[in-house]
Write a structure and sequence with these properties.
elongated, 4 domains, single chain, about 450 residues, hpI Integrase, Chain A, mainly alpha, about 5% strand, two-stranded antiparallel sheet, about 50% helix
Amino acid sequence: MGLTLSIPDDVSDSTSVSTRTRTSAGWISRGATLSSKRQRTYTLRDWTTANTPPNAQYSPLPKYVPLYADQLIKQIKTKKIDLYETANNMINYKQAQQDAPNTIISYRLKLLKYFRFMHLKPDEDEYNDTVTKIQKGNLQSDGPLDEDIITSLLEHSTPKYRAIFYLLITGARPGEISSLKIQDIDFKSTPARVTFEPLSTKTKEPRTTFLSTEAVQRIIYYLRTRATESQWLFPGFTRDPNTNKKTDSNKPISSNSAYMMIQQQFDNLELKQSISHKGTSRRKYHPKVFRTWATNFLKDHEYPADWAEIEAGHKLGVPDHYKPTLEQRAKKWQELIEPHMHFLTPTPPPKGSQQDRITELKTELKLHKNRLENIEREAQHVPQEWADLSDQQFNEYILFIRAKREQIKDPQHPLANATDNQIIQAIKTINANESSIVLKRHQIT
């Protein structure tokens, strides 16, 4: 039996619901961080969605989620539906969505805590016996990300998605990227730097990493061409559930939105493969594969292994005074990594190298080829009268035409703006002898 839903008319946002009592909104508001509150909201959203009939009037917008959850709680308390069955429905729903096993495990645990908060007094043993258990996923089965796939993702992306991917290949998490402000990127330093604030990072510590020249160019282009002016690098929006119209908000996109945007781009490249592990399935390609690729890419290009872990936001377990300074990392990154961070532009060869000389010769050859093509095009438009001349006569005519053009300086002269053919016709009307032609040759030489 599912939940009968109706969208409330008198609710503008979730804050209008009291958070002082044991309500769903109260449980969400007690999250320690903004991220925790979002996760609680998403848990209840998926729980209510999984227990809602397909034909029900339903909106998964966050502001409605607590109200729907309260309606579902009411049906559980009146014994119209079974508590444990609703939890199991959520597990089945998330498996059908091919969510990662660890994500499903996290939602399963949060839902149990929610039941306790709502005074449903769930029996933990019965919960574990009744609600499907999920085994942790095998992270070694992720899809292999390589430079060809990254290039394809960049080539087939809009400027906004492209900017997201350039940040992903630094090893950043979707949640860290979604909360960036424009001021968090230092475009003037070499290399450019992006700083993730403590509240957005998993370790709750600030982190600074680096952007390639190519990445900077593409991110700046995105900022110049985007439709919305905002302090946020990726501003969010709200959507009217009735008209489906978007309205700009003063908040960034959510981490969940960023995750789904990235996943959609994988789907667009037909990278939809899933893997089965201990009765569950998950996608091979997902945002986390960028972190694995980024760390390995740095190490493969001789960037110090422990420094690579710092770029990815991993804790080293050593005091700060043992860690390299930001300037030390920047210098090493610019030397070892920047030359290889070219996906949409060709990698420039070292100056003075044999490859550099070959590039110069190719450019020079292309120039000569273009000049030859221009000469051939001009030759196709040579007047027929010229084709019948001897070489000597041809040269005489060319020299004479040039001399006439040099002589015609007066704008009022009848031949001042004449074409070659008009000048040739004028020459034919001149009653000149051999001596006058010789004189003209002396004038132009």
